[in-house]
Amino acid sequence: MIAIGDASRRSGVCIETIRYYEREGIVPRPRRAANNRRLYSEEDIGRLRLLKKLRDLGFPLAEARILLDLSEAREADCQAVRHLAEAHISNVETRIAELRKLEKALKELIANCARGNVDCPMLGRLRAE
């Protein structure tokens, strides 16, 4: 059995996040040693690793939880996984489009800046909008 510090290192999930996942019921509470310290199994660490990968891919916690549950089902529902992934891609594409608009707006504001000008046109324009 593995202590929380080692579980954190091996899974890449920080200790406070592991505790949060446990409190929220996203991962099952681990067994406890006689001294009440948490003890994790290889399966627990695998679960934490999967959650980390899903979060790194940008899945919201609610969707990551669903995918984690699907991964632990005897017969994983590939259609449900695909549906969640496709919806996530759509959200990512929307965010990318919004970020491109933001980038364009910032570049336009920067282009309007005059060096050494005490009254910054960029801040003036932002104030006026």
Largest sheet: 2 strands, antiparallel
Element pattern in H and E: HHEEHHHH
- Low-pLDDT segments: none
Note the overall shape: elongated
Portion in strands: under 5%
- First-residue to last-residue Cα separation: 59 Å
Order of strands across the main sheet: 1-2
Helix fraction by DSSP (H/I, runs of at least 4): 55-70%
Radius of gyration: 22 Å
Structural class: mainly alpha
Number of helices: 6
Strand tally is: 2
Describe this structure in words.
It contains six helices and two strands; from the N terminus they run ααββαααα. With 129 residues, it is mostly helical. Strands 1-2 form a two-stranded antiparallel sheet. β1 (31-32) and β2 (38-39) form a beta hairpin. α1 (4-11) crosses α3 and α3 crosses α4. The longest helix is centred in the C-terminal third of the chain and has 34 residues, at 78-111. The protein is elongated and about 65 Å long. The chain starts with a helix and ends with a helix.
